[in-house]
């Protein structure tokens, strides 16, 4: 498939004519969204204090992990003592803050981890009165985190509530929590009138350029400034930006679980070098009823240059996987017959895109057409496509206090920020044990992963074969 016709030269051709300006690069890590939970199973885990958190940071593509230790239960109900507990990162802000959700049974709690202050805070629950008005947190909608420009050092947690019927009883609004006021409140929201779509099929949210961007990877992006002062005469406006013309899928697509899974595997929108980038793996079918073999799979990228202009997207490049398989793909221990899943974009270089193949995370340099790095990324198979506000793994640009440290260090923060080296070693042994369980799971499933590209539950399984 050839590149689309555009009025202006692609970014790749423009950059070939001029040397890019050098900019200071920020350290970043590939932060896994699934939190490692330590429990009370042995004395080693008892050494970590209540609600303490640590970061195990590594040089990408080695994954980095956030580890949470809670000696006591999240919920106050002592009768629920056998329900499984899980935790997931919803957002990781480049300033210092990580928003995570801990789920135990049917109870969900939000925590803010401030890596600068090295403190963990639980967010209060939405009041009973607000919940009765329908202003409670929805577990099925994405939750974003953005720095508050009006209160330095503070943040807002935001969830988009859209009206599917246009009823005045349930108007479009934002449910917000401010760390400055320590309370939940709602903001009115107006919708852009032209080319607007209902934002009820968004599958993720990210903060960029002072705005929150809700991603509907089947057809477009919704964005607004959620920190508009409440006393402003006009409420915040939600804008809609379609994807490049030949990337927009049919309206019904997001409601098909299998097709949605395929979209999440093949598309992403991520910030890199100060701009949002849209990546798609092409040459594959989204029709689950038609078994079509992949035809020369390629990686395409567009850059969002002007979200409110007539031509918002600029085509960047197209690279065929076949161009790199012959030279470096097999050398990296990857399988040329498998189409990988898109994972993330290097925040410092938009030509480098990272992909999953099985349990491995590797970077592809589209400019030099080669594999730049490949490492094992131990994430349980059932968590790789776990639905959340944040992908299972994403780039996190480290805040200054963390970035000054040498990568592959353990940073602990919480009630006690200073630990002996012996305790750090014991904690890392607990982390290694958790990761070993994921490694064993991949080993058990290795013999059956090639049997089918779609499993019986209707979810996409392994990558399609070429």
From TrEMBL:
Top-level taxon of origin: Eukaryota
Biased composition (Basic and acidic residues): 8-24
Stretches the record annotates as Disordered: 1-24, 444-466
TM spans (from-to): none
Matching InterPro entries: DUF1618
DUF1618 domain sequence ranges: 214-354
Full protein name: DUF1618 domain-containing protein
Naturally occurring in which organism (per UniProt): Zea mays
């Amino acid at each position: 498939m050839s590149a689309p016709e555009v009025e202006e030269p692609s970014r790749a051709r423009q950059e070939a004519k001029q040397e890019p300006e050098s900019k200071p690069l920020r350290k970043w890590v590939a932060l896994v969204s699934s939190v490692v939970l330590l429990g009370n199973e042995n004395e080693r885990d008892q050494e970590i204090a209540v609600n303490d958190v640590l970061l195990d940071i590594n040089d990408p593509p080695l994954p980095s992990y956030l580890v949470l230790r809670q000696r006591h239960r999240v919920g106050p109900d002592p009768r629920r003592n056998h329900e499984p507990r899980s935790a997931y990162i919803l957002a990781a802000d480049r300033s210092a803050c990580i928003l995570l959700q801990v789920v135990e049974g049917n109870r969900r709690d939000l925590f803010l981890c401030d890596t600068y202050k090295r403190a963990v805070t639980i967010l209060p629950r939405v009041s009973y009165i607000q919940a009765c008005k329908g202003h409670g947190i929805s577990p099925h909608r994405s939750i974003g985190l953005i720095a508050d420009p009006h209160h330095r050092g503070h943040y807002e947690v935001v969830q988009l509530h859209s009206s599917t019927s246009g009823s005045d009883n349930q108007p479009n609004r934002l449910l917000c929590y401010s760390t400055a006021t320590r309370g939940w409140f709602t903001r009115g929201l107006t919708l852009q009138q032209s080319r607007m779509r209902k934002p009820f099929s968004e599958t993720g949210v990210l903060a960029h350029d002072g705005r929150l961007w809700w991603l509907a990877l089947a057809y477009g992006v919704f964005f607004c400034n959620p920190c508009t002062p409440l006393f402003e005469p006009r409420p915040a406006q939600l804008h809609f930006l379609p994807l490049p013309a030949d990337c927009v899928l049919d309206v019904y697509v997001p409601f098909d679980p299998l097709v949605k899974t395929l979209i999440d595997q093949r598309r992403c929108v991520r910030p890199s070098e100060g701009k949002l980038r849209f990546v798609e793996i092409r040459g594959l079918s989204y029709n689950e009823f038609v078994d079509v073999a992949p035809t020369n799979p390629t990686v395409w990228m567009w850059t969002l240059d002007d979200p409110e202009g007539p031509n918002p997207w600029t085509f960047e490049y197209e690279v065929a996987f076949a161009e790199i398989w012959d030279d470096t793909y097999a050398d990296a221990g990857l399988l040329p017959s498998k189409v990988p899943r898109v994972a993330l974009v290097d925040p410092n270089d938009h030509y480098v895109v990272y992909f999953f193949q099985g349990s491995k995370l590797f970077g592809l340099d589209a400019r030099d057409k080669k594999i730049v790095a490949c490492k094992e990324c131990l994430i349980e198979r059932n968590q790789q496509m776990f639905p959340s506000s944040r992908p299972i793994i994403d780039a996190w640009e480290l805040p200054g206090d963390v970035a000054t440290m040498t990568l592959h260090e353990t940073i602990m923060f919480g009630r006690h920020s200073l630990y002996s080296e012996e305790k750090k070693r014991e904690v890392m042994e607990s982390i290694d044990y958790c990761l070993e369980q994921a490694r064993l799971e991949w080993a058990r499933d290795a013999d059956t992963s090639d049997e089918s590209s779609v499993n019986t539950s209707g979810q996409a399984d392994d990558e399609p074969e070429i």
